[in-house]
Amino acid sequence: MKISWKSVLLWSLPILVVLFFLWQGFVASNNTEFGKNIASSRMTYGRFLEYLDMGWVKRVDLYDDGHTAIVEAIGPELGNRIQRIRVELPATAPELIPKLKKANVDIDAHPVSDNNSTVGVIGNLIFPILLIGGLAFLFRRSNNMPGGPGQAMNFGKSKARFQMEATTGVTFEDVAGVDEAKEEFEEVVSFLKRPERFTAVGAKIPKGVLLVGPPGTGKTLLAKAIAGESGVPFFSISGSEFVEMFVGVGASRVRDLFKKAKENSPCIVFIDEIDAVGRQRGTGIGGGNDEREQTLNQLLTEMDGFEGNTGIIIIAATNRVDVLDAALLRPGRFDRQVTVNVPDVRGRLEILNVHARNKKLSEEISLEVIARRTPGFSGADLANLLNEAAILTARRRKKAVTMSEVDASIDRVIAGMEGTALVDSKTKRLIAYHEVGHAIVGTLLQEHDPVQKVTLIPRGQAKGLTWFTPSDDQSLISRSQILARIMGALGGRAAEEVVFGYPEVTTGAGNDLQQVTSMARQMVTRFGMSNIGPLALEGQGSDPFLGRSMGASSEYSEDVASRIDMQVRSIIQHCHDETVQIIKDNRVVIDQLVDLLIEKETIDGQEFSEIVASYTPIPQKPEYKALL
User: Which N-terminal residues, if any, form the signal peptide (predicted)?
Assistant: First the structure.
């Protein structure tokens, strides 16, 4: 076990303090030489004079400048044997010495020794010096450690990490799926490397670039790529590092950061999670945080104030742009706002190619198929997906990742860990009918996504799952597609009603009904897809300082609210009736699929479609054209 000098000193200081007080007691106890000849008893001065008059006193040793005496006396009261008795003498007793001489008593005076005083002085000096030296060493070591007690005077200093030539190990080649954002930053890097090409035509370098997007889309990765490509000094800090409990510390850190940046310009300053310090001023219940607002005011001044910050490019990242102060977002501070969205299928393919470089993949793996099966995945999700597949491959003692591991990893990322297969035949059959109901409706509706697989293997909170593969990345969704999704979500509940009867309907469709209600309500209130007309009755935004729904207020009358409820019920009821009819018309194939699913526990989409096609024609699904 390694023991540091700091630990030794921390344990030694209490021991030194105890030894110091013990030394003081030792010196005090030996302050006079009579301590070496401790008497067995004490006697008052008056009793001593009586013994002297009776001739019992034989010898007197004087100590402590005549204030203490050790008397040797013998008499009947003392058992007729010599005893040493201690006597405290008064400060003024001039008649004592003549009496002692008259009684022929041996007198011996013992002067105070200088050795004890010298030792006392040395002891009084050595221990304080050791204590002060140890404390000084500890404070000197603490000054070099972040957060140590010696940092009390450095609260106002910036905590930004500084690199003269940033070596992040990330370049633009490692960034994929965000081509627009990458072009913006390649332009910034080229301005830093070759500014004359831009200044020749009167162009000015942007002062700030704000990266906006959901978590995991690659905002911080882009900043690392800029640091690795630019070749200029790079400062990186988190927005939360400006905020402190002490008044004025945040503003002081902002001033110190920009002072260092100006000394090293041209340079780049990256502020991650800027919403921690850049929230709107004067908002929220009970007023804003004054200290945070002062920090924001200082940041606004440094970015574009009276003096300016020529040669400093501010790059910030956030996924909460809705809470940022308007003064922070204006041109001159953040001239550009770059949106980094979840990648489309082409972007997912590029990201998979980047993360697959250091993975051993088998020849059967098609990254295009994986890209198709992962709509809505961010760059971080895709990196985690391939990493989970590699871990599962190592666990199965395989030499390369196969589609089996990828499929299992996709299921785990989306739905959670695989659970234990069901044993109860009644529950298993009910869940099988529920999942086949979802799958049969989705298969027989032309506007619905095709079935990928149906499984009875539990994952997360779900006892069974039906997976659909979208035919395209759908940024625009038609009314018929929304209705098809509503009917697909109602397929499980409809199958339970048709097969087992309404009294035997279970709670398994609870989450499905929440999704159905949400989709139907958005059709009426946001997309204008109902008889009420093309009206947007509810906005998507909400007050972030009052919660996502507390600040929302209805913008329509009670009569319109009643009509909204009627339209939502009408849409859901119509979809429910259509779904029930599909289940009744295809009861024979549903029973066959349920028996097969109970036996195999998992049916892939191709086999499922082939079985359904042998009983009823399947409408042609839209082709997947995104990769062409």
Answer: 1-28
